[in-house]
Structures are given as structure tokens and as C-alpha cells.
Design a protein that fits this description.
The protein has helices spanning 2-39, 62-69. It contains 2 helices and no strands. It has 72 residues and is mainly α. It has one domain (2-69).
């Protein structure tokens, strides 16, 4: 009878340990997924400027300068 009781309590102890291990594993997985989500950067689309309406090679207006510098 004693061996039966010991076996039952050992099984309960083993089941508790398994549940604790599963809980820690799921917590670690959740933390890893949260960290991965935070690590993903949302890249903002780069603004593309249209070529200004006038076509002077030596123009230094802000539109021409911005258009020349966007691909630099």
C-alpha cells in the first residue's frame, strides 16, 4: 500500500513539474514573439519629388535643389 501511495504522489509531482515547464516555455515564446514584433521596423515610404516645371541647369531654387538631392 505504501508503494502505491508513493507512486501516486510521484506522478502528481511529475505532472506539476511538467505543467510548470510548459508554462515557462509558453511565456518564453510569447516574449520572443513580442520582441520580434517590436524589432520589425515599419519603413515609411520615401517621398519622391517631381521634376520642377522649368528646366534651367543652373537654377538653385528650393524645388530644383530638392529634386537634385533626392537621388544623391
Amino acid at each position: 500500500m505504501k508503494s502505491f501511495i508513493d507512486r501516486v504522489f510521484k506522478m502528481k509531482k511529475i505532472k506539476k513539474e511538467e505543467l510548470l515547464n510548459e508554462e515557462t516555455i509558453t511565456e518564453v515564446k510569447e516574449q520572443a514573439t513580442k520582441a520580434a514584433i517590436k524589432a520589425i521596423k515599419v519603413e515609411e515610404p520615401k517621398e519622391v519629388f517631381a521634376k520642377p516645371g522649368h528646366y534651367f541647369a543652373d537654377c538653385n531654387c528650393f524645388k530644383c535643389v530638392r529634386w537634385r538631392n533626392q537621388n544623391a
